[in-house]
Amino acid sequence: MTDFFKGIPQIKYEGPQTENDFAFRHYDAEEVVMGKKMKDHLRFAAAYWHSFAWSGGDPFGGQTFERPWFGDTMEAAKLKADAAFEMFQILDVPYYCFHDADVRPEGADFAENTRNLEEIVDYFAEKQAATGVKLLWGTANLFSHRRFMSGAATNPDPEVFAFSAATIKTCIDATMKLGGENYVLWGGREGYETLLNTDLGRERKQAGRMLQMVVDYKHKMGFKGAILIEPKPQEPMKHQYDYDVATVYGFLKEFGLEGEVQMNIEQGHAILAGHSFEHELAMARELGIFGSIDMNRNDYQSGWDTDQFPNNVPEMALAYYEVLRAGGFITGGTNFDAKLRRQSLDAEDLILAHVGGMDACAAGLKAAAAMLEDGKLEAARDDRYAGWETAEGKGLMASDLDEIASKVLNNNINPAPRSGRQERLENLVNRYL
Ligand code: XUL
Ligand code: CO
């Protein structure tokens, strides 16, 4: 037991009318929505890196947070784990996610990194057994250490490729040992700063080969979870190879990995790519590669990946609408890849950030479920495409240009434009919020 969260109560559902800051207004874990408990729809996870490893720095200033577990020793890593599992329990989040570098002290070399990771994984296994908290996904941090400054899989130095491959192996092993339900790859430095020094073709092939090795290892080890790629268009590199869902799909096809790898889609990354979150979710669904989500929000003025906690219910509603249309999560979940603002120093800030985020997601989910169950939005969509369900519409797809040209001429086809009814549909959506 640490005393970091001393005085903070267990967070419970009290309903929208409560005046208690330390309570859920919308997230009632046991409430059934569309035939499933809310906790099973949302499958919340807390992110170790933002909540327990980040020290509050920004490009203009260093650490603002003072945490008793800061320090690069095994003792500190265990204290950090104690506090982390206390937070998971206060919030009753069923899952957590971590990178190797968030949870273990940095070693002098690969062997020491591995020993440190194994020691902390054993500690996590005990904590999971004692609390019932589970691992949604594990991943390797192949972007913070200076050895990765020019990439991990895409590095010009084959020794860095080797170090990265070996590290991924240890992180898949750790994920499996902890019963993790997914393994995530975010290509933090897999991109480039300038074409003047970059062999783009070679780097993409290296990334493809690494991913094939990951998939092969998954099968060799009998890992039942999903391998997930998390697309992001820029930051840290000026050009990232995993730009967005559609780009990653092309990459998977090129390397014969479609059907093997799914997407972990992050709200803020979608915005950086010039998309909406719901666009990326819908695209993944249509391509059959929807897996999991990283939930957060960006600051729309700064245009940067600010990783704030989500608080915009209308945005959440449209996102969960697409999640529900995709059939919901199977191995995936809602991971809060979100961090406090650097002035939010207190333990209670960490708790209240999650409470607000969980409530916004729950309110969004309920609105999304109501929209779907009501069916008005889908009926309007069906109506818009109804022509394609007629014999003539279906026939077009099997025709050629000659046949179609004769048909247009003979039947004097002269289409009249129809309203897209956007405002009417926007008004409809607002009725559920
Ligand atoms: C970075 C980011 C990562 C991944 C995991 O923007 O989202 O935290 O989620 O490496
Ligand atoms: Co993320």
Radius of gyration: 24 Å
Architecture of the largest domain in CATH? Alpha-Beta Barrel
Strand content: 5-15%
The main sheet comes to: 8 strands, parallel, barrel
| Contiguous uncertain segments of 5+ residues | none
Word description of this protein:
With 433 residues, this protein is an alpha/beta fold. The protein folds into 2 domains: 12-374, Alpha-Beta Barrel (TIM Barrel); 379-430, no CATH class. It has helices spanning 38-42, 48-53, 74-91, 100-103, 110-131, 158-177, 200-221, 245-254, 267-272, 277-287, 313-325, 347-374, 376-384, 391-397, 401-410, 422-430; strands at 12-13, 23-24, 32-33, 36-37, 44-47, 95-99, 134-139, 182-185, 191-192, 226-229, 239-240, 261-266, 290-295, 297-299, 304-308, 334-336. Strands 5-6-7-8-10-12-13-16 form an 8-stranded parallel beta barrel, surrounded by 5 helices. The chain has a two-stranded parallel sheet with strand order 1-2. Strand 3 and strand 4 form a beta hairpin. The model has no long low-confidence stretch (mean pLDDT 98). The chain binds D-xylulose and cobalt (II) ion. Residues 99, 139, 184, 186, 230, 232, 266, 294, 305, 337 line the site of D-xylulose.
